[in-house]
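[job 0412] stage=fold_complex status=start
inputs:
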Amino acid sequence: MQLTVLIVDDDEEITRSTGIFLKAEGYRVLEAHDGLEALDMLMSEEIHLVLLDIMMPRLDGISTLMKLREKKNIPVILISAKSEDADKILGLTAGADDYVTKPFNPSELVARVRSQLRRYTTLGAMEKPSESVITINGLSVDTESKTVTRDGIDIHLTPIEYKILELLMRNPNRVFSADDIYRRVWNEDAAVNDNTIAVHIRHIREKTEINPKQPQYIKVIWGIGYCIKK
Amino acid sequence: MKGKKILYSAWMKTAAFAVCIATAAGAVGAAGKAISEMRNGSGYRPGESFEESSVIAGSLSSGAYILISAVTDNDENAVFDNTTLESSGIEYYAENLKTGKKLTNTGDRNKNSYITDIEDITNEGLYLTVEKKNNEWSADGNEYALRNYSDSLIYEYEPFSDSEYTGDAETASDYAPGGRSDKKPLDDYIVYLRVNRDKAEQLLILWQRAQSATDGALRGIPAYAAVFLLALIYLSFAAGRRPEDDEIHLMTADRVFPDISILIMFTAVIPIFLEVAASINMPPDDDIFRLYWSLTAAVCSAAAVTCWLSIVKHLKNNTFAQRCLVCRAASWIWRLFIRILKWVFIKLPKKIGAAYSSVKALASAKMSYIAMLAASVVYMWITVAISWLTGALLYEGDGLSAFLVLICIALIALPVAVIFKTLKGYDGIRAGLRRIRNGETDHKIDACGSMLTDAVAEEINEIGSGLSKAVEQSVKSERMKAELITNVSHDLKTPLTSIINYADLLMQETLQPEEANDYVKIIAQKSKKLKQLTSDLFDVSKARSGSEEAELESIDYKLLITQAEAELDGEIQKAGLEFILDLPDEDVNITADGKKLSRVFENLIMNAIKYSLRGTRVYIDLRCSGEICTTEVKNIANYKMDFDDDDITERFVRGDSSRTGEGSGLGLAIAKSYTELMGGRFYIKTDGDLFKAVIEFRLG
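[job 0412] stage=fold_complex status=done
writing structure:
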């Protein structure tokens, strides 16, 4: 089945060029240039994912998203030049599944689209998750088989990395300091001024994230520790 | 020149001063000696001959005194105490004129031999004839003796006059000298006395000695005085002058006011006169005593001369009047007098005029105030008068008084009400000011009806509305600035997105000619750099415009540095650098915005990665001293750093002026802005090839 992606942006060149990348991945691409047009298309076409710009004429991205969410549950990725935290938070709370700032790296965007679509499409077909599996935003840790998958893709971690990830996944939203992680994973007191944990975290992130520079899963709480936000 | 040098030389002056003192002392000594010589025994007076001197007469008078104490022996004859008379060298001849009885202690009964010519005195001695006839003394032969000594003899003899003792020997004896009852007066005797040769010679020797001593001393005084005067004149002339110039030099001692000098001078001279006077009672040969006095005279004269010279100096320097206390006082009083005169005749009329005109101006400009003041005074007087009247009537028991009391209460209540109203208005103003001060710039103070405070409240309300307008404007401009940054950044980012996308698409194609593939690569590279640049520009502009806010929280500084370093571990290894973290063992907590601080360190580490010499080490040191913790990121630059340490943190300044390579040139600007936003301090130090970024934060 060919999946359809709707790209909404008032800049025609952006919709066109992004469309080319997505078409190359085998998706059907539709383009709209303002919020109302996008909503019309959503009514008439079967669409699986929306790339939505925020600053648009007639109806802006946030309003469009809110209207869309009244009827549809498809993944929406916001694409905006607004790069501030407040904007991101606003977009995500309005119902977006991801937030990408302009100018973006096209291949990263494609990866994110793929990830969202896989999560969306496999959700329905997925068997009832067993109790041993912890899933947060598409990242799953099977505590029995000690395997990690992101949107169904297997991720290979070293035992230490796995232990750290499991610790964080088991306690979502809880901030662990480097000492805490050391004590829990190694069962011994942390060596002073050691960046071991930091380096491990970075490695985990490189393996699990689409763009390790804008991590979705393991977040650095600067000067305090690390955590996974649910 | 040489003469002047000697004339004014210090040693010359000193010598003259010493001469002054010495001569003064000498003169006083000589005067004392002369006086004491003259006053003692010898009887010498300058200009008198031995015969005229008191010494012979004194001997004779003492002899006469012995004679009057003559006693009568058993045969009714007068008898003299021969022993005493002989020891004083007195020879006598006495003849009772009634009986013709003659008495003598020499056996020489020739009366005439006692009456010797006065010129022959050295050979024959002196004589004295004492006669008493009819209660009156007379003398023959020696007028001098009589003239000089009769007075005292008469006095001594008087108690023995007839009127007092005749007829009653017992009573008369009470008056007799020596208390002997058998004494008889020398009535009817004529007595002749003379000093015998030995005694006269003895006295002469004494006299002559005194003569030579006194005359010598007296001759010395004018000599001393002359020398003293000469020295003093020289000193007066040379005083204050120095060989090297023609100025008058004043010394410390000359600071004494001349009046005081004069006073001291006279005070010092007085003891000298006292000394001279005191020598009257001094024995002539008491040289030690005299020496003491000479010394005293020396000291006193030294003081006097010093004072004199000081006065002379002031006179020569024309500073006498100026230094003189009396003159000063006089001139001060004169000036004061002049000032008083001036004030009274010039200033006072002006002041009166000014006061009059200011009152006039006030009256014309502030008529309402004057009227109000006048009205309140009149009101006060009316109130007082009516109160007084009321009191008087009340005392009289008048029926009208009750009504008047009411009027009084009303009169007093009116101003009280006005005062209360004013106070209320004042309170309102205070409260309103406080609210405006606390940021409620659009607060309006309500009018309360008091004429005085409402005007003020109105003015304050005006200020408040002006202030709130200004605040609104500033908020608006701040918001516009932030919006501008956001919009510009957005307007840059949108086309950039397309550029990146198409560049990426082109990169996937194989292009003809072949160089085109390289061109596309460059476009892709530069567009990515542009992306970084716009994002950095956005950040730094936001931080500088003040629209960025730091979310401050307590942060484990050590952990943050470790995290920041670990995040960039890949880049560090790629660059072939070694990072050495030197962190203290104890916990270091600071208040900062974690995200922004991590950005600071990310920028610093990226900077180190970009600009470090390959294979060198980069040090990150964290050190705390007192309240301040300092972090230093040090690396060895891979190029020659020729920038200013302060300029490098400005926007778009990079160490290498060629402006090529990666990086936006905004890394350090962002680091500095963010650090300062969080209340820290950020600066760069370079030393040769050593590049050092320093961040300071307050602990806690």
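[job 0412] summary: The interface with chain B takes residues 11, 13-14, 17-18, 20-21, 55, 81-83, 101-107, 177-178, 192-195, 197-199, 201-202, 220-225 of chain A (CB under 8 Å).
[job 0412] exit 0
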